[in-house]
Amino acid sequence: MLMNNTVTDNYDKLKYSLFILPLLLLAAIAFYLYSQHSLSTEGYINIQKDWFYSMNGELSQFPETEFNLTQIGDSLISLSLLAVFVIYAPKIWEAVVSASLVSLLFSQLFKKLFSVPRPAAAFDNSTFEIIGKTLNGHSSLPSGHSITIFTMLTVLMFGFMPQKLLLKIFWFIPFIILGLVLVLTRVGVGAHYPLDTIIGGIIGYISGISGIFISRKYKIFSWIGNRKFYPIFMVLFLVCAIITIIKITENNLPVFYCSTFSLLVALFLITRKYVQK
């Protein structure tokens, strides 16, 4: 499996120094908030109020695009789009599963720790655009969708990273741009403040590389590439496909069609491979 070998080789070359930059970025954001006397919940919201209104006003001009793209932050959708890698690059899934568990821990921990009210709970809802369901809880920081998006992108980015330095730069930049476009949809739909998404993206990056290192060292999910466990994924893909089809009946979005198609293709391929002698 050439693709899986490529991913494995790339993961084996990664260094723990990759944690330095995201930690420095989080420290820089914390220092900025401290310098602006905005470490309190009220200060955190107020310092972003103008940014939020401005970005929400601009991005919400494309409601269908924003609502479609923001769905990729749903773990069901993002994992569905990666379904085929179970067959061709199970190492990706080993890292993704490990990283998803780390991201879930971070997301739940920090949301409860900070307990920041979402924009719909802090501002008059008639003063900004809300696309989709109105979220009123106190779970704004960090953005869970943003964590998920950057977790998945990080695992993919390092898994297929080219070897030459110049190519690495051109490979890295599009992933970051794509990630930022996707996470900022959370501002566009009125669900999060800008810093929620940036901080969430950084945490997602940390979760992604954490998942890679965990899967590399402990081999917890090395069984994923074993053919005898394919029935587990056959059932999983079928159930997820049914759920995404139900989502289509509720919201007729192209992203749900893409997820369903990805799942059905993966289901067909993994079933065919399983029954082969």
Automatic annotation (TrEMBL):
Where in the cell? Cell membrane
Q: Cross-referenced InterPro entries, in alphabetical order?
A: PAP2/HPO, PAP2/HPO_sf
Heme keyword on record: no
Q: Which PANTHER family match?
A: DECAPRENYLPHOSPHORYL-5-PHOSPHORIBOSE PHOSPHATASE RV3807C-RELATED, SPHINGOSINE-1-PHOSPHATE PHOSPHOHYDROLASE
Main location per UniProt?
A: membrane
- Any idea what this protein is called? Phosphatase PAP2 family protein
Q: How does it sit in the membrane?
A: Multi-pass membrane protein
Q: Hydrolase: present as a keyword of the record?
A: yes
Residues of the signal peptide: none
Q: Which UniProt keywords are listed?
A: Cell membrane, Hydrolase, Membrane, Transmembrane, Transmembrane helix
The record places domain Phosphatidic acid phosphatase type 2/haloperoxidase at 97-209
TM region(s), chain numbering: 16-34, 81-106, 143-162, 169-191, 197-216, 228-248, 254-271
